[in-house]
Write a structure and sequence with these properties.
This protein has 119 residues and is an alpha+beta fold. It has one domain (2-97): Double Stranded RNA Binding Domain (2-Layer Sandwich), CATH 3.30.160.100. The chain has helices at 14-30, 75-98, 113-118, and strands spanning 2-8, 34-45, 51-61, 64-72. β1 (2-8), α1 and β2 (34-45) form a beta-alpha-beta unit. InterPro entries: HPF/YfiA_ribosome-assoc, RHF-like, RHF/RaiA.
Length: 119
């Protein structure tokens, strides 16, 4: 699995890099067929009082690419929110891939209404 962390208008410090890596361990723990992760951290200076921190991720899985973004006033809060969203998306994809809840109709037992009434 390849992990790329980059910053836009932001220098990615070792502390931020370590924080993102530890948070991504949760996603990798739930679903280990991850091919590539690209994280982009951005700081938008809109006004003097309004600094907006943005975190976005592209997660490539076999057969699907998951894109998630999150905005917050604090970069660490944006990363936390991003990981929560990403984890939900990965779990949703995992349940779709496994598909344990769905069985083909032709494999179900053959119950006709007459047999059900006789029981």
């Amino acid at each position: 699995m390849n992990l790329t962390i980059s910053g836009h208008h932001l220098e990615v410090t070792p502390a931020i890099r370590e924080y993102v890596q530890t948070k991504l361990e949760r996603v990798k723990r739930h679903f280990d067929h991850v091919i590539d992760i690209a994280v982009i951290l951005t700081v938008d200076n809109l006004k003097e009082k309004e600094k907006r921190q943005k975190a976005e991720v592209n997660l490539r899985l076999s057969g699907k690419t998951v894109y998630v973004e999150s905005l917050a006033q604090d970069l660490y809060a944006a990363i936390d929110s991003l990981i929560d969203k990403l984890d939900r998306q990965v779990m949703k994809y995992k349940t779709k891939v496994q598909g344990h809840g769905k069985e083909a109709i032709k494999h179900l037992p053959d119950n006709t209404p007459e047999e059900a009434a006789a029981v």
